[in-house]
Amino acid sequence: MARGWQARATLGDVAARAGVSKTTASVALNDKRDGIRVTDDTRERVRAAAAELGYTPNAMARDLRARRSRTIGFLSEDVTTTPFAVGMLDAAQKEASRSGHLLSIVQLDEGGSSEAQWDAIDLLRQQQVAGIVYATMYHRVLAPPPGLPDDTVFLNCRAAEGNFISIVPDEYQGAFAAVTELLEHGHRRIGFLDVSEHHEASTLRRQGYMDALAAYGLEANPRLCVEDLSYARGGKAIEPLLDLPPSQRPTGLFCYNDRQAMGAYRAIRKRGLTIPRDISVVGFDDQEYIASELDPPLTTMQVPHRAMGAMAIHILLQNDSVPAASPAHERTPGVRLVPVPIIRRDSVGPPP
Question: What is the dihedral of CA 191, 197, 201, 206, to 10 degrees?
């Protein structure tokens, strides 16, 4: 009676068919093994035997021998639950899949206990992951948790110490471009709505704002710079600016993020002003369901979450450890700055 299945050919079967040892068969199929050489004739004979028997290497066994699995650990601080950052995870999964890997995702709470971080890292080490990506919701500097492998890639954050590679958006370049967009439309009184919870991203965006003005021979007016929460209700902070006389009121506004810009839209309309006729607005993030849906649609800077997520996996698997050149404002070795493009919509026009 015919069997309903056929036993899988083993390396021993291939070796027996080719008339060589299992070690020789392994070397012939894998093309390398220190200290052992095989002739071209033997290599061809072994490969022919493997083809005849339909032999395919056991990937799991190979990975266990190498003490690495085809799994990549993805430690996430709120990335999996944040709409505008989850694109990093999606792109990382797709890039890993293209390389024959899977992501093992572990969610961490921002500022969680060191014990919880250690347990998560230990879990991934027990799985013999091929590497670890440590991702955060927003760009900040953090102390690497103990126990991370040296080739860990930090995504959307920068390690405060160690020789880790960090992939972050070029916040400075993005802010410089956002303010330059307003300057090129003729604006000279440009307000800045910053966040009150200062961190790496806000520091770099503020510097980009100030340097863009300086490039046009202008100084930042402290009166036009305000701070508030990073949410829509934070947009109320611009109300005192809107109450200034028309000759002093800003004609352009750069917002730290799109959620603040949404709040700023409300404050502007509340005073009977129109965007962009009376005041132009530029945001940051290009957050889905916000920037393109505002009325008028918001001109904003697009944080390249997907590009960064794919880059993290590529660097991890390629062991691409040569630091990229960094501009003057970010000279930290090992930091990969990803450009932030502008997405032009309808919220910017000439000053009134």
Answer: 30
CATH architecture of 171-303: 3-Layer(aba) Sandwich (3.40)
Q: How far apart are CA 171 and CA 191, in angstroms?
A: 18
Report the distance separating Cα 281 and Cα 255, nearest Å: 7
The H or E element that residue 116 is part of is: helix 114-126
Which residues are CB-contacts of 41 (< 8 A; sequence separation ≥ 6)?
Answer: none
Mean pLDDT of the chain: 86
The alpha carbon torsion through 96, 97, 100, 103 (nearest 10 deg) reads 60
Give the domain ranges of the chain.
Answer: 71-169+307-337, 171-303
Spatial contact of 26 and 7, defined as CB atoms under 8 Å apart: no
State the Cα–Cα distance between residues 178 and 284, nearest whole angstrom: 8
Q: pLDDT of 250-298, one tens digit each?
A: 999 999 999 999 999 999 999 999 999 999 999 999 998 999 999 999 9
Give per-residue pLDDT as tens, 200-210. Answer: 999 999 999 99
- 171-303 shares the fold of 71-169+307-337: yes
The one-letter code for the residue type at 241 is L
Q: What CA–CA distance (Å, rounded) separates 311 from 319?
A: 12
Lowest mean pLDDT among 106-115, 189-198, 275-284: 106-115
Which CATH fold topology does 71-169+307-337 show? Rossmann fold (3.40.50)
Task: Indicate if the pLDDT at residue 101 is higher than 50.
Answer: yes
